[in-house]
Amino acid sequence: MKYIYYPGCSLEGTALEYNISTKSVLGALGVKLVELDDWTCCGATAAEGTSHLLSFALPARNIALAEKMKGDLDVLAPCSACYLNLKRVEREIVLDPGLLKKINQVLETEDLVLKGKRKTRHLLDVLSSDISARDIASAVVRPVNGLRIAPYYGCQCLRPYAVFDDPEKPRSMEPILVSLGASVYEWDMGGKCCGASLMSTAPEAGIKLVAGILDAAQDADAVVTVCPMCQMNLEAYQRRASKMRKTHYAMPILYLPQLMGLAMGLTDEQIRLDLNLCVPDGFLHKLPDAQAV
Amino acid sequence: MKPAFEAGRPHGASKNLEERLEPVRKMLLPCMQCGTCSGSCPNAWAMDFSPRHLWRLLLTRNGEEIFKSRTFVLCSTCYSCTLRCPRGLPLTDAMSMLKQAAAAENVRMHRRSVGFYKSFMESVRRHGRVREMEFMTLYFLSMKNPAIPLRFTPLGMRLMAKRKVSFEIPSRGMGRLDAFFRKAKAVEDQS
Ligand code: SF4
Ligand code: SF4
Questions:
Q1: Cross-chain residue pair A57–B184, CB shorter than 8 Å
Q2: Which chain B residue has the Cα nearest residue A98?
Q3: Which pTM was predicted?
Q4: Potential cystine with A165: which of A172, A190, B60, B173 (Cβ 3.0-4.6 Å)?
Q5: To the nearest whole angstrom, how far is the Cα of A213 from the nearest Cα of chain B?
């Protein structure tokens, strides 16, 4: 299995541990990644807030670069915002040839042409569709038995394009969690919005969404996510949410490949839990071989 | 340091708000006012008009009124409404088109979100990739609140301690995607 890897900006900054753990886990599962050379920002949610055409041309630049690479490889994006932006280009140019023409006018400035011949895949899509839960299970050396893990999907890997999961009641993470030895925490917040950039543009609204998700996760041992924006919102604003709700949230928010890495016995350097803003000691002690650490 | 652009001040506005609303209106014509979008929206409680109500206003009132509402800047692009609208209308896109209009015309009331999106894009224009610390610094500058760049906020300090972001003075000069951005604007202005 081989993919063109598009990490995106967050994975080089605030979500560095997502980048490192994704590469480590996929490597350990025998998946090859070739990073897209000279990639640029997909526009995140900001391009859409300023210019319709840029919100297509920015992700399109990266797809056009991928099209120049040999082979028929899919583009793999771990960040949900990147994934959706690239996927949108893939879907919309088929429906609107005029849009493709405009995109290509912009791409001319970079000597690139978009043909629409690459598929973009979310990391969770690859983990749940291309790799079998059995393969993951056989890579597990220290199952995280007994941990109650709340799967959090967020929005953009699910909606508006229903590609690999039910956009209202997502479940694609569950077989993965089970193969790690975890028990799936039952809740209905997995596909609810974390507030995205509202935490900066309208924090009074964003913080309510964050607190709602943290409340619902109360009896879980950890939440796992597959999106840098979700992870940041749920992790970094726990203090503010605690103040607002007059409570004390201390919920570990891990990236899915970090939890996989723990169960697969990868090293600290391959998982980088130290980069998370807060992984309470209580959580680390719950891990099966915590005594040995 | 001068901000890269002035949030909330019109500069060379090419089209007026009313004109920018036309395509959104056209898109919303089939709305049957069922309210499914409002019921699906996680932020409806914070909005002055529910999404359904905003569509109604859009179809019956003039532009200025629409832009006095905070509804569209409170859209967190979760796509729940788009997924569920029985008429299959691309409602998240409609919200984004209103954000784009507010950004193009620098509607002062919405400078917090307009400034946020524009600061992000400015960093992308300069480097091709967003530099989070620069972007946040530009954002605070554009808000005329340079007293609180990210590096002085508790979160900024925690991120710096983890070496996830580094302190950078926003740099001007030739941008990596200058030509790309210019071309996009030219093509968009033509249509
Ligand atoms: S869900 Fe669709 S049809 Fe119903 S009120 Fe909203 S926009 Fe109109
Ligand atoms: S996409 Fe925006 S308007 Fe629609 S439900 Fe989500 S937050 Fe509300």
A1: yes
A2: B191
A3: 0.93
A4: A172
A5: 12
pLDDT in tens, A178-225: 999 999 999 999 999 999 999 988 999 999 999 999 999 999 999 999
Residue A71 tokens, joined: 């082979």
Q: What is the least distance, in Å, from the CA of B37 to any CA of chain A?
A: 14
B154 with A53: Cβ contact below 8 A: no
How many CA atoms does the CB half-sphere of A271 hold within 13 Å?
Answer: 18
Position A134 in a domain: no
B-chain CB neighbours of A9 within 8 Å are 129-130, 132
Q: How many domains does chain A have?
A: 2
Its domain, for residue A179, covers: 142-290
Ligand closest in space to the Cα of B87? 1
* pLDDT on residue B138: 81
Interhelix angle for B111-127 vs B132-142, to 10°?
140
Indicate whether residue B35 lines ligand 1 (CB < 6 A): yes
The token pair that represents A73 in the structure block:
């490889």
Q: Are residues A283 and A147 in the same domain?
A: yes
**CB contacts, 8 Å: A65 with chain B:** none
A137 lies in some domain: no
* Amino acid A176: pLDDT: 98
| Single-letter code of the amino acid located at A130 | D
Pairing of strands A222-225, A253-255: parallel
Which ligand 1 atom sits nearest the alpha carbon of residue B84?
1
**Tokens of residue A127, six digits:** 């983990």
Please name which ligand lies nearest the alpha carbon of B98: 2
Domains, chain B: 5-106 (1.10.1060.10), 111-166 (no CATH)
Q: What is the CA radius of gyration of chain B?
A: 18
Q: Rounded to 5 degrees, what are φ and ψ at B152?
A: -100, -5
Q: Which residues of A touch B176 (CB under 8 A)?
A: 40
CB of B4 within 8 A of CB of B170? yes
Closest CA to B65 of B90, B98, B40: B98
For residue range A145-154, list pLDDT tens digits in order: 989 999 999 9
Give the ligand 2 atom nearest the CA of B92. Answer: 1
Assess contact for B6 and B142: CB atoms under 8 A.
yes
3-state secondary structure of A46: coil
